[in-house]
């Protein structure tokens, strides 16, 4: 391509290559942690762990989508961000349903398992956040990846707090509260991502936008 004959385009291509590598790494981390947390969450009867496990699954799928559209036009990237924003919103609604179910049944999760797995999840998401830091202010697609990872770290801290709360109170209410907080974070992140994606799609439809996106 003609544009790649200059230093600016070569620099962008190199950055894109690094971003692709980082996405593959964080995709693998999230897929492994989904398996760990869903198993532990079911075994411990923890709504927060199960919600966090599904969040890992959603993130792995989102990173896969980001890899698919990487290098494509702004319209494709913004459309992918819309899909990711919608998936985050659905995740938030699912967690709300889980919170209601556990509240009705008075579930008391195993705080020990919550604590150990929560520390593992925090370490995994902190590593992903550090890897993705350089792209936190990118387009809607890149920013959606950053927001997902940021929310995950906050959710992990909340899970650890829930484990301490269950240990101290002997009830499942701290676990239920944390799951509710995770739902709010997911819904808030979804709104932010969808708003930016829609803005970029509107911009893409203006005259000359296609030229600028290249």
How is the topology of this model organized?
Layout: H1 7-44, H2 47-69, H3 74-105, H4 111-132, H5 140-169, H6 173-204, H7 209-213
Subcellular location: Membrane
Domain Cation efflux protein transmembrane: 23-201
Keywords: Membrane, Transmembrane, Transmembrane helix
The mean pLDDT is 78
CATH architecture: Up-down Bundle
The number of E-state strands comes to 0
Q: Remind me, CATH topology?
A: Alpha-lytic protease prodomain-like
Q: Could you describe the largest sheet, including whether it forms a barrel?
A: none
Number of helices: 7
Total domain modules: 1
Helix content: over 70%
The CATH superfamily turns out to be Cation efflux protein transmembrane domain
Describe the overall structure.
One of its GO terms (molecular function) is monoatomic cation transmembrane transporter activity. The chain crosses the membrane at residues 21-44, 56-74, 86-104, 110-133, 153-170, 176-194. This is Cation transporter. Its main location: membrane. It comes from Roseospira marina. The protein has one domain: Up-down Bundle (Alpha-lytic protease prodomain-like), CATH 1.20.1510. It contains seven helices and no strands. The protein has 214 residues and is mostly helical.
In short:
The protein is 85% helix and 0% strand.
Descriptors:
7 helices, 85% helix, single chain, Alpha-lytic protease prodomain-like, disordered C terminus, mainly alpha
